[in-house]
Prior knowledge:
By secondary structure, the protein is mainly alpha-helical. Helices cover 56% and strands 6% of the residues.
Amino acid sequence: MTERRAKYHAVNDQWPETIPPLTGPEAIAAAKRLYRFTMKKSWRGKWKLVSGNRYTWTHQGVFCVNPNYTGRGAINGWHDLVHFMSHYCHSRLWPRHKPHGPNHHHIEKEMVAYVLAHGWLERKLKPKPSKARPKPDAVARLEASERRWTTKLRRATTALRKIARQRASQAPPGGQGAVRKQRNIIATR
Ligand SMILES: [Zn+2]
């Protein structure tokens, strides 16, 4: 066994035999925490879920997170997420090093240990409800528009009721209503 293989055995042997599936919200929450754990700061950009064979990696300032990578070398959701996060952080910390350079296995090993120590495989990672409501301006605009239309609806209903009342009061005596009444009287005789 080469030295490098031995190093990565020490990384990967930490994983238990059965690993539960990883959900999208968990993957985002885990990626955020792992980034912060290794980089000692939060990722400032946005986060986005991706799927298929796309890597968990940044793309144009957005951190794309794949909870179920299906591309080459895929193992399982958790394993692959941690693997990609370790390589991403490594590439930022040591941009001149090769992907499996001398410091990489430490990062991955610590990340795996972090996941296990925090019980994330036992669903102890609770994704925080996002603080930023989606597009607060758009929501406020919709609510204002709804209020305006509700007012218009109320005015229209009042106006129609008034018209109906006026029509009833202007109906000539002996109109349809009166005729029907007479007929009823005739019919019951
Ligand atoms: Zn690797």
